[in-house]
Amino acid sequence: MESSPSAARALDSTGGPLMPGQKAIFAVACVVAGFLPVSVGYVPDEATRLVCGLAVTGALLAIALLARRNAAVHRYWEIPLAFFGMSLFILADRYVPGFLASQVLHSPPVAGNPLASTVPATVIIELDELMLTVVAVLLVVWISRSSLASVYVRWGRFGRAYVIGIAALVVFYVLTFGVLSHSRFMPVHGAVDFGRYLSLTPALFVAAAANGFLEELTFRGLLMSRLNIAFGPYLATTIQAAVFASWHVGVTYTASGLVFIVLFAFPLGLIGGYLTRSSGSIIPSTLFHAGADIPIYLGFLSYVP
């Protein structure tokens, strides 16, 4: 099991490892910090929401830079830096895709599809969100003077994880058509016959792969690699899965939000963590994640002409 370059550098830094009690408190703090950027979205007034988003993002960056200068906590400074990158993405994602959909593509969201009102625009918006994620992660990598390999952006080891990821993608695609129309968690709007399913397949794969990659890059790549520094592989995997699940609080594409979080989002975070660690790459977890997202994006696209 490989550790990231950031973790290797941390071993040579000043400041000792956390005691069990300190580790438990820090773990809770990390879950809270991970949810904080998303919680800003619940602020009712848009102007206040923007101010809060900027404040949270700036505070996380300030904490990271202060920690870098403090010998006692220097080895952990890249953890708040990772949360800064995640908050920066949330801040940009709250405004850029909506502006792109309404003002540039003239395809604002419709009921049932939170991205856009046409299939091409939905794909473009998802690719735009991917670009915002990549920019945020690259900024964190640049500030920390690390490499893309430190966030598992590499081929890694081809083995069981790759087989699981590829098989999951195929199985989810094959089963989605027969299962989704009977699911109360992600209902399809109107009839989706086999011909329409085939016609939507390119858009499904692009949108699902883009979302799968951006979330794996964010949580398994950026966050988990930095949590390794303080928590080790198993607890780091659990914490990032908890943060990943918290980002799905209030999802609008299912009427059973709590069940979705407990039975889908949190286990998906754990599976993604396992596949990433097993292979040393986010590619297998991206394949698995993309497959799991196919039913969701079919639900979205069923609402557009």
Write the topology of this structure:
Blueprint: H1 5-11, H2 20-39, H3 46-69, H4 78-93, H5 96-104, H6 119-144, H7 160-180, H8 194-246, H9 257-279, H10 283-301
Helix pairs in contact: 1-8, 2-4, 2-8, 3-4, 4-6, 4-8, 5-6, 6-8, 7-9, 7-10, 8-9, 8-10, 9-10
Description:
This protein is mostly helical and 305 residues long. It is built from ten helices and no strands. It has one domain. Helix 2 packs parallel to helix 4, helix 7 (160-180) packs parallel to helix 10 (283-301) and helix 8 (194-246) crosses helix 10 (283-301).
- Percentage beta strand: under 5%
Class from helix and strand fractions: mainly alpha
Number of strands: 0
Q: How many H/I helical runs?
A: 10
Distance between the termini: 47 Å
Number of domains: 1
Q: Give helix and strand order, one letter per element, not per position.
A: HHHHHHHHHH
Gross morphology is globular
Radius of gyration: 19 Å
Task: Round the mean pLDDT to the nearest integer and report it.
Answer: 90
Which regions have little confidence, pLDDT < 50, spanning 5+ residues? 1-14
Largest sheet: none
Helical amount: over 70%
Summarize the structure.
The chain is an all-alpha fold and 305 residues long. 71% of the residues lie in helices and 0% in strands.
Please name the defining characteristics of this protein.
single chain; 305 residues; mainly alpha; 10 helices; 71% helix; globular; disordered N terminus; transmembrane; Rce1/LyrA-like_dom; transmembrane helix; membrane; endopeptidase activity
